[in-house]
Structure formats: C-alpha cells, structure tokens
Design goal:
The complex is a heterotrimer of chains A (about 425), B (about 220) and C (about 325). Chain A is mainly alpha-helical. Chain A is built from 13 helices and no strands. The N and C termini of chain C lie far apart (about 95 Å). The chains are: A mainly alpha (about 425), B mainly alpha (about 220), C alpha+beta (about 325). Chains A and C meet through helix 2 and helix 6 of A and helix 1, helix 5, helix 6 and strand 7 of C.
C-alpha cells in the first residue's frame, strides 16, 4: 500500500517536473501563454474590485462573451466523444492511440468552461452556495444546476480515464478493463448530455423566443461535433510536427469524415432555423432579423454572422470535395469551421437572445477591453493546460517516461533528438 | 522530442538561455506595468443628477374647500356673500354662441366641464339660493365637504369605483386592522370647472448603463 | 555570438546549473508578475469577513441568527451612510395574497412611480437601477416592442399614446425562481418573489429568464446619497444591496407587510395603481378583478400567471 502510494507520488512528481522542462520553443510558448494569462488575471482582479461594470454587459444584454465562450467550449469538450466512439464502438485502429489526446482536450476545455463561468459570476466568493449539502443546489429544477453537475462529472470522468490509462502505461501494466471501459461508455453518453444540458440552459427560457426553440439542442450538437474534431485535427498535426509520436494521415482523414458529416448537418439545421424565423414572419423572429439583417438601425452582429455563415459554407464545400484529402486544404477547412462556429455559437447565439429586450428595447453589446483580456487569459490558460497534458502524456505513451527508467537521468527537453529513444507507442 | 533537424547542442542551449532570460525580463516589465496601472479604475461615469423631490411628493394636486376649512386656512377669497347679495340668485350672462360669460371677479375659472358644453351652467352644481353649498339636479343641497355625492349623480360608474377604492388616489393602510386608508375627494384631483387632468412635466427617463439606448424608431412612424 | 550561453559547453554540469539558474529566475519573474497582476485587489474595500462569508441561507437561519445578521447589517449601513436604519425581517401574513392592478386608462406616464420606487427602495442612483419602466405606447397595441422607453416630452400624456408601466409581475409561476441555481430567489406565500441578497451568486440566469425584464443586477457598487437613504428597511426588501447581486421589485415588502400601500401607489397622481389582498373580497383589487370587463396579464402566453393586472376603465 505504502509502496503503491510512493510510486504514485513519484509518478506525479516526475509528471510535474517534465511540465517545467523543455527546449527553447517550449519555454517561449509557455512563457508567452503565461504572459497572456497574467494579463487575464490582472484584468480579472480589476473586475473583482469594480464589478462586472468593467465588461460591456448591461441589464439589457446581461450575458456576453464569457458565456459565449463557455458555450463554445462545452461543445469542444463534448466533441471528445467523436474520437471515443470510433475507437470503442467501431474498433478503429488508427485512432486508438490518439483517443487520449481527445480526452485530454476535453479536460482542458472543461477547465476553460469552468473558468468562464466563474469570471461571469457577480459573487464568485459565494461559489460554495452551489455545493450540495453545504449550499443550496436547486436540482433538478434549475438547468444551471444540471450544468454544474454534468460539467464537473465530465471533468472527473475524463480525468479518471486519462489518468488511469496514463498511469498504467507508465507502469507498463495492462489496464484493467473494469477500471475504465465502463467509464468510457458513461463518458460517451455524458458528453452528449453536457452539450444538451447547455443547450437546454437557453431553450428553457420561454421569455426569449430566439432561444426557446427545439432546434437549438440539435444545432448545438452538430456544431460541436464539427468544431471539436476540427480542433483535434489541428492539434494532432501540431503534436506530430513537434514530437515523433506516430499519427497517421489515415487517422486525420477519419476525423475529416466526422467533420464533413457534422458540418453538413449543421448547415442544414441552420437553414431550417432561418426558414422558420423568416418565412413565418411572426414577431418572434425579431432577434433573428436583428442578427442577420439588422433592425431599426442596429446591426452590430450582421457582419459577424455573415462571416460565420460564409466560413461555414466554404468549409463545407472544401470538406465535401476530394481536395480536403490533402492536409493543406483540410487544415484551411478546419480553421474556417472553428472560427465560423465560434462566432455562430458565441456572438451569434448568446447576444441576439437579449436583443431586443423582453420589453422591446434595442441595446447593443460590445465586449470591453478588460473583458477581452480576461477571455484571452482563459484561452491561454486552456492552451497551457493542454500543452502541459501533452508534455506529460506523449513521453509516457512513448515509454520514455516510465517506471522502468525511474532514477535515470530525466528528460531535459533541449537534448538533441538523437538522444531521445525513438520508440513510438504502437500498442 | 525534436523531429526537426536538431540544432547543434550548444546553440540549442543558448536559445533556451535567451528565451528564459528574456522571459524573466518580460515578467519583470509586466509586473511594473501591472503595478503602475493598479489604481486605474473604470472611466468615471457620467453624473446623473438626483431627481427633483417634487417628483417624489405624495401630496394631492389640489386642495378642496373642505381641506382649507379643515386646515383653518385664510378663507377670505371664498366669502361668497362678501360680494354677492344674500337671497338674490346671481344672473348668468351668455355670449352670442350661448357660451357662459365668466364674470371678471371669477376670471380664474376656466369653464370646461363636459364636452359639447353639456355642463356649463354654474347652478348645475352650485346652489343659487345659497352660494356656500352645492346642489344636485333634483334640488337637494349638498355641502362642500361632500363633493363625491354631487359628482356621483352624473358619474355613476366612477362613483361606484371610487366608493370601492378603485377610482382615485389612496394612501395609508391597505390592512384596515393596522391603520386607516386615506381617501381623496373628487376635487383633490379634478378641478370641478374643468375636470380633465392637465398635462404635466414627466419625471426624467432612464439613464442607460451603456451609451447606446434605443433610437426611438417607433416615434418616427407616428 | 558574444553571449555567455553561446560557448559550446562540454561540461554539462555547468550548463545544467546555469540553465537551472535561468529557469529559477524566469519562475521568480513569473511569480513577481503574478503577484503584481493581483495588485488591484488591494483596492477591495469591502472584504468579506468570515462571518459574512459563512452567512446562512435565509430559510435556514434561526431567529437568533437573523437578529445577529440584522445587527450586522444595521451597523454596516450606519457606518456607510451615517443613518441608523430600522431593519426588520417581515414575514408574510396568513390569509394574504397580494395583487396589483394598474389602470391603463388613467396612467399619464409621469414616471413619478419610477422615482418614488427608487427613493423608497434605496436603489443605486449611479449606475441607475430602476424597478419600473414606463413604456409610451401608440394607441391600439399591447405589443411592448412598439413602446418607447426614453420619451422626453415636455408634457404628458401625449395625445395618441397610452403609457404602460412595467415592473416585476410577481408571477404565480415565476421563471426566475425556477432557474436560480442556488435558490436565492423564491416565492413567498403572500405571492411576493423575494431575493436573499446575501445568497445570490450573481449568475444573472434569472435576468435572462424573466419575460418582463424586471430584474436588475448591481454591475458595480451601488451609489445612494446619504440624504436620500430610506432607513425603514426589510431584510428581503430595501436594505442596501452589494455589488454583484440581483434585485427587483418586491411590492415594497417593508411597507406592505406592515399593512401599508407600496410607494409607487401612493405617489401616483392619478390613482392608476391599486394594490391589496386578493383573498379579501372587500379589497380594491378584488373589486377590480370582479367588476372590470377587460384586464390583462402581460405576455399571458408565457404561462407565468402574473399577480399584476392591467385594466381599462373605458
């Protein structure tokens, strides 16, 4: 028992250590992220003192880019299942060794989600009011209480799955199926649930006709399953170019198939929504009119949404054409997807829900500088987390960071590549 | 860790050194920046003038004759028989349009009770036999302290609402066991000679937190 | 290259220790920058004390807890505004359910109710928090989207328009209560939806959920001039709020649970506002809902079933 605990602590210490060593590019990247994070922390400190007045929000538009980013990132987190499903349900060989990168991305995304929700709170000091037993979690009536549960649950599930598999790999032990397969399947359902619950957060509000539409849930999932795997495609290529971890083009093209289908469904659902809002001509379409064409001289979101739609359409065309088998085009399509969906789901979904107000006033919203810095800080924090996770996971998966080489000289990061044992994991 | 052609060992190390040193410098610079902007607060908000207390007043617009009596106010202006002769009903004069001519002495009275001049005769309400009282159409005499009785003879539904507390101003206690309800009389709000409530200056509108408030698109259409 | 790092170093121990030194310097710099980035927090003047941080949920407080909290609030108010307030925890009365009726035929749009409310309920003057919004509406439509919020006519009423004041509708089925993740807002048995300002976490979900735009957030520290502070306060009512929490109309709990009329009603120069106990058949509101042919619950299709009724005389 004590040995087991000691071994685990050594594992943790070695993982933590490796997060702080690397070559000059690693330091530059991490240092750059840290600087952005520090700007974010500074901006948040100012927000804590002066209140949310330092943002661009108001009683009219009471949620802004914080919640917009939160919504987008829940989708990214949920999209990890799009790698898990092919591997664990369809036994896809190519993705098998890569699935953990998807799960780690989910962990990083959830950490960002939780940060975005926290910075949006007026009284973060009262977070404990949400803890059942200590506080008063309004479960199951409030969809936000559902969100608290599913997000934290998803975080724990993924931390467990990744942590367990990595630790087994570190010890060179075969993972016991009972310890992770059930959790993997729970996580698949759970992933769908986190994004559905997040959609229901909006759908459940009868006073906001723009959100109070049953198509919002399906659209959330479709867009998440487009943007998430697109991010994973780009992330895998970054991993491939900075490490010698084996990532095949075939694996990337499997993910392309997922992005392709999801994007087509996403665009189809968008068409459904636009048709309903505009053809019927009911007064409930006011927010959509404001979003797509502007209303009463207010049209702050119009360029955004058409950029998003343009990006999505171009991405869809590239994805359905055979050219996207070439990574160059695939990457362009992925980048367009990510940006397009970020706009569509953030600025395009959260903000117009508030415009006009339930009393018909048009007050527009623009994020303030302080608010933007906080957002950038959280994004940098997420990237930093993901980088650290990869920095730990890749050598473990390659067998370079293992129990076997405990006590031997540790990886430094800027040693020449030839020194590193080339043993890509191909189990 | 490096699939790219490795740089010579020393140069790689040198770069690490540069990056780390550069970061340390940057961090210190950042710390200075944060400290120097520490007290930089949000832009001072535009001042909003405090609302004039006249908009907070709950006092009625008008005082009735009965209120003046109760308040023991100077009633010399209301001494009818200081000018009029007792037992001699004043005569009414009309112009060519059959509109009543308000005499010089009562120039402050604007006749405007009822549209189409339906109620423009002083003695529809005033008692011509006793100017210190009022009268109903059937000749019943009504005191100045009992105005609703008079008004109610024509304005039945409003009188009914008023009696139920649904018309007119109230204040005090809704819970009668805790205190009294304060009711106002018709003439506390309505000038009996021209009862339509005059237009008034509205209190200031809202000051939006963010500058972009509604550009009043709806007014343009009307 | 003249840098000390550039010389090819065969003795890797020296290189190692130099690099460790540099790593340490960078880390130290990072920590310094982190500490400096937090420096604005020194400006936090309203530091949460342990007592405040651990304050219990309203419904879980014993009378003893409550009297302690009320004492603390009174001291805070006195320190900040120089006025000793009279803070009470007024409970709903048995056999009382409040209803508000507003006569749209009478309302002249003078906005006196808006400001009387601000004054009574110690709302922030800058940034401005107002519970009542008066809409200037063209004759013939109840569509709030046709309303003008910022009319500044020299005189009201303006011919061709009617005026519709909107405030918390005290719904039977309040969406704001449903969505609150921490039960910081709830409906009391007299029908008033209240907020525990010391429990609210400021997520603003209720503000998004309200179909009447009745909820307001304290985007920064509220500003109340000392000379206008109303010292008659209730815990769930008009005691001064803190930065970062929600507030809204509560039918002037500090008055109405004491048997009095709300401030907006008393100030209305035309008697357009009527308030009372719907369970009492002799109340004004019972009379109105019995006798008036048309009365309207705003946005009836939302299923919120408001306790606030708009009606017409003619």
């Amino acid at each position: 028992m004590i040995t087991a605990a000691r071994n685990y602590l050594v594992f943790l210490r070695r993982c933590a250590r490796i997060a702080f060593v690397g070559d000059w590019r690693y330091y530059a990247w991490m240092g750059g992220l840290t600087i952005v994070i520090l700007f974010g922390i500074n901006a948040y400190a100012k927000q804590l003192v002066d209140g949310l007045i330092v943002t661009g929000m108001s009683d009219e538009v009471s949620w802004g880019v914080y919640i917009a980013n939160f919504t987008f990132l829940v989708g990214v987190a949920a999209a990890a299942v799009m790698m898990v499903i092919p591997v664990y349900i369809y036994d896809n060989e190519e993705l098998h060794d890569l699935v953990i990168f998807g799960e780690l991305l989910a962990v990083a995304a959830i950490l960002m989600c939780l940060s975005f929700v926290t910075v949006d709170l007026g009284r973060p000091d009262r977070f404990w009011h949400l803890i059942p037993g200590l506080g008063q979690l309004n479960f199951p009536r409030s969809m936000l209480s559902w969100d608290v549960i599913v997000l934290n649950g998803y975080l724990l599930l993924n931390v467990h799955i990744c942590g367990y598999l990595l630790y087994c790999r570190y010890q060179d032990k075969k993972p016991s199926k009972w310890f992770y397969i059930p959790f993997v399947f729970i996580a698949i359902v759970w992933a769908i649930s986190i994004h559905t619950v997040t959609a229901f957060l909006y759908v459940g509000l009868g006073g906001r006709p723009f959100w109070n539409a049953s198509i919002v849930g399906p659209r959330f999932l479709a867009s998440a399953f487009t943007a998430g795997p697109a991010i994973i495609i780009l992330a895998l290529q970054v991993i491939r170019s900075y490490t010698n971890y084996r990532i095949t083009d075939k694996a990337l093209l499997t993910l392309r198939g997922i992005v392709q289908v999801s994007m087509i469904i996403n665009v189809f659902l968008l068409v459904c929504e636009i048709f309903k809002e505009f053809y019927s001509g009911t007064t409930h379409g006011v927010s959509a009119k404001y979003l797509f064409v502007g209303l009463h001289g207010h049209h702050a979101l119009v360029p955004w949404i058409w950029t998003a739609i343009g990006f999505n359409l171009i991405a869809m065309v590239i994805l359905v054409l055979p050219v996207s088998r070439s990574l160059k085009y695939l990457n362009v399509a992925c980048a367009l997807c990510i940006v397009g969906i970020w706009i569509e789901k953030g600025m395009g979904l959260v903000i117009p829900g508030f415009i006009p107000t339930p009393l018909g006033a048009f007050v527009e919203y623009l994020p303030s500088l302080n608010e933007t810095l906080v957002c950038l800080g959280i994004w940098a924090f997420g990237l930093l987390c993901y980088t650290v996770f990869l920095r730990m996971a890749v050598p473990i998966l390659q067998g370079r960071l293992a129990k076997a080489n405990e006590g031997q000289p540790e990886i430094q990061g800027d040693e020449p590549a030839s020194v590193a044992p080339v043993s890509p994991a191909t189990h | 860790m490096d699939p790219l052609p490795p740089l010579p060992d020393g140069r790689n190390r040198a770069r690490t050194g540069y990056v780390l040193g550069g970061l340390a410098v940057l961090f210190v610079a950042l710390a200075m920046l944060f400290l120097s902007t520490m007290r930089e607060h949000v832009k001072p908000r535009k001042a909003i003038p405090l609302v004039d207390t006249k908009f907070l007043a709950t006092t009625p617009w008008r005082q009735t004759y009965a209120d003046l009596v109760k308040a023991k106010a100077d009633l010399s202006d209301y001494d009818c028989y200081g000018c009029h002769e007792k037992n001699k009903p004043p005569t009414l004069r009309f112009d060519e349009n059959q509109k009543i001519i308000v005499p010089q002495e009562h120039v402050n009275i604007v006749m405007g009770h009822g549209s189409h001049g339906r109620n423009n005769l002083c003695f529809n309400c005033h008692n011509d036999k006793n100017l210190t009282t009022l009268q109903v159409r059937d000749g019943r005499e009504i005191g100045f302290d009992n105005i609703p009785q008079l008004c109610g003879t024509c304005h039945g539904p409003n009188y009914r609402d008023w009696e139920a507390g649904a018309h007119g101003r109230t204040s005090g206690y809704w819970d009668r066991s805790k205190g009294d309800i304060v009711r106002l009389s018709c003439a506390n709000c309505h000038n009996p000679h021209s009862p339509r409530i005059p237009t008034r200056e509205p209190a200031p509108g809202p000051h939006a937190l963010r500058a972009v408030e509604e550009s009043k698109p709806h007014d343009a259409a009307h | 290259m003249s840098s000390p790092f550039s010389s090819p170093d065969k003795t890797s121990d020296a290189a190692m220790s130099r690099r460790n030194f540099l790593r340490g310097t960078a880390a130290l710099g990072g920590l310094t920058a982190l500490a400096a980035s937090l420096s604005p927090l020194l400006e936090l003047d309203d530091l949460t004390s342990t007592e405040k941080f651990l304050q219990k949920y309203y419904k879980e407080m014993t009378p003893d807890d409550m009297s302690k909290v009320i004492k603390r609030i009174s001291n805070e108010v006195e320190r900040q505004y120089g006025v000793r307030p009279h803070v009470r925890d007024l409970k709903p009365m048995d056999g009382v359910e409040f209803v508000y009726c507003l006569n749209l035929t009478r309302c002249i749009g003078c906005r006196k109710c808006v400001h009387a409310c601000v004054n009574e309920n110690n709302q922030s003057r800058n940034p401005e928090i107002q519970y009542i919004r008066v809409l200037k509406m063209p004759h013939g439509s109840m569509d709030v989207e046709k309303g003008n919020h910022t009319y500044d006519d020299k005189h009201v009423p303006d011919p061709g328009y009617f005026y519709m004041p909107i405030q918390c509708q005290q719904c039977h089925n309040p969406p704001c209560v449903k969505v609150c993740p921490v039960n910081a807002t709830w409906q009391e048995k007299d029908g008033i939806t209240v907020i525990d300002y010391d429990w609210c976490i400021g997520c603003r979900y209720c503000e998004a959920a309200c179909p009447y735009w009745a909820r307001r957030f304290n985007w920064t520290k509220p500003q109340i001039p000392k000379e206008r502070l109303n010292p008659n306060m209730a815990y769930l009512g008009n005691r001064p709020r803190k930065q970062g929490v929600m507030e809204k109309c509560h039918f002037c709990i500090q008055r109405t649970r004491d048997g009095r009329y709300p401030a907006c009603l008393e100030v209305c120069p035309v008697g357009a506002r009527k308030f009372g106990n719907i369970l009492d058949p002799n109340s004004e509101v019972s009379y109105i809902l019995r006798e008036k042919r048309v009365f309207i619950q705003l946005k009836e299709e939302m299923g919120t079933n408001p306790r606030f009724f708009y009606y017409f005389d003619k």
